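Researcher: Structure prediction, please.
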Amino acid sequence: MSKEEQTAKRVRKAPEERRKEVLDAAVWLIGERGFNGISMQDVADEVGISKQGVLRYVGSKDNMLAMVYREYYNASGNPEDFRASGMPGSGPGAMLFPAYLRFLVQYNSQRRMLVQLFSMLQVESFNPQHPLHEEFAHRQDSIWEYYCGFDWKIPPRFGSWKDMRPLVRRCMEIMDGVQLRWLREPAIDLCEEWSDIEAMLFPSPEWDGYR
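Model: Predicted structure follows.
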């Protein structure tokens, strides 16, 4: 029995605790090296268990990536979390989209590693063979459909939420770009950067009372 296997046998942890350790390690490694730059053995070494042990919790490398993306990055910081936050602009029947974006930026400012992982995956997924290629290719459509499930209060000139789609798309694209700059230059205050951009995306007087 190898030293690694002896260690894995000696340290007994609950399945959910070990599964979280595996996914935490995957988040860190993918954020540093990219999905294509790591192996299952790298994850196993980081956690201190065997490669077979990692596979027992995630099934495969592709499945591990899907779990990391959906359960870690996509599972929080969403409009549902905002609605439950009780923050200004989160009230039922009158959610304010600019207020939600501020909430999201603030949330992302506290999870740099996950934002880095997301940015890395977004670039890697240009490759049609990437396991998340289709998911990222249709990301904007998925975001839009998801956001349409909430009751947003918007300025009268838009008519209805469906007319907001071009602006929502621009907001998401700009946010991705701002986050990339923040990752390159850690001294930047992400929330302050977004505050300046918000004034351009949602100008006065049109958006007064809707921010």
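Model: The two ends are 62 Å apart (CA to CA).
Researcher: Thanks, that helps.
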